[in-house]
TrEMBL record:
<keyword id="KW-0963">Cytoplasm</keyword>
<feature type="binding site">
    <location>
        <position position="472"/>
    </location>
    <ligand>
        <name>meso-2,6-diaminopimelate</name>
    </ligand>
</feature>
<keyword id="KW-0436">Ligase</keyword>
<dbReference type="InterPro" id="IPR035911">
    <property type="entry name" value="MurE/MurF_N"/>
</dbReference>
<feature type="domain" description="Mur ligase central">
    <location>
        <begin position="110"/>
        <end position="324"/>
    </location>
</feature>
<keyword id="KW-0132">Cell division</keyword>
<feature type="binding site">
    <location>
        <position position="187"/>
    </location>
    <ligand>
        <name>UDP-N-acetyl-alpha-D-muramoyl-L-alanyl-D-glutamate</name>
    </ligand>
</feature>
<keyword id="KW-0133">Cell shape</keyword>
<protein>
    <recommendedName>
        <fullName>UDP-N-acetylmuramoyl-L-alanyl-D-glutamate--2,6-diaminopimelate ligase</fullName>
        <ecNumber>6.3.2.13</ecNumber>
    </recommendedName>
</protein>
<dbReference type="Pfam" id="PF02875">
    <property type="entry name" value="Mur_ligase_C"/>
</dbReference>
<comment type="similarity">
    <text>Belongs to the MurCDEF family. MurE subfamily.</text>
</comment>
<dbReference type="InterPro" id="IPR036565">
    <property type="entry name" value="Mur-like_cat_sf"/>
</dbReference>
<feature type="short sequence motif" description="Meso-diaminopimelate recognition motif">
    <location>
        <begin position="417"/>
        <end position="420"/>
    </location>
</feature>
<dbReference type="InterPro" id="IPR004101">
    <property type="entry name" value="Mur_ligase_C"/>
</dbReference>
<comment type="function">
    <text>Catalyzes the addition of meso-diaminopimelic acid to the nucleotide precursor UDP-N-acetylmuramoyl-L-alanyl-D-glutamate (UMAG) in the biosynthesis of bacterial cell-wall peptidoglycan.</text>
</comment>
<keyword id="KW-0547">Nucleotide-binding</keyword>
<feature type="binding site">
    <location>
        <begin position="417"/>
        <end position="420"/>
    </location>
    <ligand>
        <name>meso-2,6-diaminopimelate</name>
    </ligand>
</feature>
Length: 502
């Protein structure tokens, strides 16, 4: 059904541009269809408004932007600062154009440096259990780093958080397909760029704020500020959930509590939490974890929960999902955690009959690397082998910190991750510079050869951690994407006739 800016934004000060009906909206001129709205949005290096001529040629009916376009032959709605933020306006247009889908679903948004994908995976598992009585098979939506699921079709994701128009279109498909709940990852980039504008969240989760993407944000404080923007996406009755074990997250929660004055709207969780989100009696074994969530005197009462995922950090992830869904049937929460399927590339086990354990993980930050090592170190009876790299054209400052974290393993192989346009040798030197003991690491640039070396060095009772790329299926070198999946490579090497690991 056609929509106008006057209707979408509920305002009468947009002149002729406010009265022009449009049937679609996009910020990409190449996607414009006849009768659609083109949003010329300002980027870091390029302004979308520069492409208004292409949009007009493709049949755009109206333009939404933040600067006058005097030569444009179609109506232009100009959002100067006094009038409002143009990205927020575009988000609201997308929300309205797609039938206000986030108001028709229970939508849980998750941000944080680490844990977003796993928390969303857990949320979807709980959603499915809650819907099991009504749907066979039960359905729920998920949009994140690994895949996008609209309840009918699951496809690999291109971005952690898609463009604003695509996000609302996905939610609309979830509604059309019969989903009643959905989980969405919200990266700090997406929040900073207002890609989630117009979203109404029932629950907003902040897992942690640690070092990553400083090449984009500039400082850890800026990362925290970007992640805190998830608060602005909460629906009127939405709840903010965060890990108070993390000082920066706790600060965000305290600030929101002071602003909102309704304690029920903000809930903390963690090992240091004293309230209903308190984690205690955690047991982390070789095949899964158990923990008690809650505290006597709080509602809901304490519950013992289990999940087939390794490590203390996954206990935190499970607690985040459970606290975000306290309005759901407790049995669905418990079953959703206990029955969750393995998360691709997140401590994913590779089993080919070898006498040692092999795990592939996405850890690519200092904090993430320490977390996965801490998770498996107590369980490893032999030596812990680690393979890790670092991405090119990204935050160089974290590389030495990653090298230092790698020192927690017994044996380390530094190798290429996604070098992109950088010299792989320079990246590897940066990593190695942080390692405390040159005698306990080697550098092998070729990732396949490095994986083979790490696996060949392992002996019975050892554990091998292949970190950095997780679920990814390509390696980017000098602008070219080459097929490469750590999990496939591990299986090929372990199954090869000449493998010396046994």
């Amino acid at each position: 059904m056609p929509l106008t800016l006057r209707e979408a934004l509920n305002r009468d000060d947009l002149g002729e541009a406010g009265t022009v009906p449009f049937t679609a909206a996009t910020e990409f001129s190449g996607r414009v269809t006849p009768g659609g709205l083109f949003a010329g949005l300002r980027g870091r290096d390029v302004h979308g408004a520069w492409f208004w001529e292409d949009a007009v040629e493709r049949g755009a009916a109206v333009v939404l932007t933040d600067e006058p376009l005097s030569e444009c032959p179609i109506p232009v709605a100009v959002f100067t600062p006094w009038r409002g933020d143009v990205r927020q306006a575009f988000g609201e247009v997308c929300h309205q154009l797609h039938g206000r889908p986030s108001e028709r679903l229970f939508v849980a948004g998750v941000t944080g440096t680490n844990g977003k994908s796993t928390v969303c995976w857990l949320l979807r598992s709980i959603f499915r259990e809650a819907m099991r009585v009504k749907y066979k098979p039960p359905i729920a939506g998920l949009c994140g780093t690994i895949e996008t699921d609209d309840g009918r079709e699951i496809v690999p994701s291109q971005l952690t958080t898609p463009a604003c128009e695509d996000l609302h279109a996905w939610l609309a498909r979830c509604v059309a397909n019969g989903c009643e709940a959905a989980a969405v990852e919200l990266s700090s980039h997406a929040l900073d760029q207002d890609r989630a504008a117009g979203l109404r969240l029932s629950s907003a989760v902040i897992t942690n704020v640690t070092r990553d993407h400083l090449d984009y944000h500039g400082s850890l404080e800026s990362v925290a500020e970007a992640k805190a923007e998830i608060v602005d996406l909460l629906a009127d009755d939405g709840r903010l959930i965060g890990c108070i074990d993390d000082p920066l997250v706790e600060r965000i929660l305290l600030k929101q509590s002071a602003r909102d004055q309704r304690a029920t709207k903000v809930t903390g969780f963690g090992f240091d939490c004293a309230g209903s989100g308190r984690i205690s009696a955690a047991g982390c074994g070789p095949v899964g974890s158990t923990f008690v969530l809650g505290n006597a005197g709080f509602q809901p009462p304490p519950r013992r929960l289990s999940l087939p995922l390794l490590g203390r950090f996954n206990v935190l992830n499970a607690a985040a999902a459970a606290v975000a869904l306290t309005s759901f049937d407790p049995r669905a929460v418990a079953l959703g955690l206990a029955k969750v399927s393995p998360v691709p590339g997140r401590l994913e086990e590779i089993e080919c009959g070898q006498p040692f354990r092999v795990l592939v993980d996405y850890a690519h930050t200092p904090d993430g690397l320490r977390a996965v090592i801490d998770a498996v170190r107590p369980l490893c009876e032999g030596r812990l082998h680690l393979l890790v790299g670092a991405g090119g054209d990204r935050d160089r400052g974290k590389r030495a910190e990653m090298g230092a974290a790698a020192g927690l393993a017994d044996c380390v192989v530094f190798t290429s991750d996604n070098p992109r346009s950088e010299d792989p040798h320079a990246i590897l030197r940066d990593l190695a510079a942080g390692h405390p003991d040159p005698a306990r690491y080697e550098i092998i640039e070729d990732r396949r050869a490095a994986i083979a070396a790490a696996l060949s060095a392992a002996r019975p009772r050892d554990w091998v951690l292949i970190c950095g790329k997780g679920h990814e299926t390509t390696q980017e070198v000098a602008g070219v994407y080459h097929p490469f999946d750590d999990r496939v490579v591990c299986r090929e090497i372990l199954a090869s006739p000449g493998f010396a690991g046994d």
